[in-house]
Design goal:
single chain, 82 residues, mainly alpha, two-stranded antiparallel sheet, 2 strands, DUF4224, DUF4224 domain-containing protein
Length: 82
């Protein structure tokens, strides 16, 4: 377990997951249940701790600086009709 400081890892620490889920850092089953109920993507590590990518967490929480991808073009593709 980390000592309350943010991990340099690409994954959330047990303390960060506990804060997100509102449980204790050793309540791994509860963390996984919370993540499943909200349809978050995660893997379970060899210690039983759910592994949530930090970038995924940031996207899900709406705190990423990543620009949204445009799904459709601004104008129709007129070449498709020729």
């Amino acid at each position: 377990m980390s000592g309350g400081c943010m991990s340099a890892s690409g994954y959330l620490s047990a303390d960060e997951l506990a804060e997100l889920v509102d449980c204790k850092p050793n309540q791994r089953t509860r963390m996984a249940a919370w993540l499943r109920a909200r349809k978050w993507r995660f893997e379970v590590g060899s210690t039983g701790l759910p592994k949530v990518a930090r970038a995924y967490h940031d996207r899900m929480m709406g705190i990423t600086d990543e620009p949204k991808r445009q799904k459709y073009a601004d104008e129709p593709n007129l070449q498709a009709f020729s």
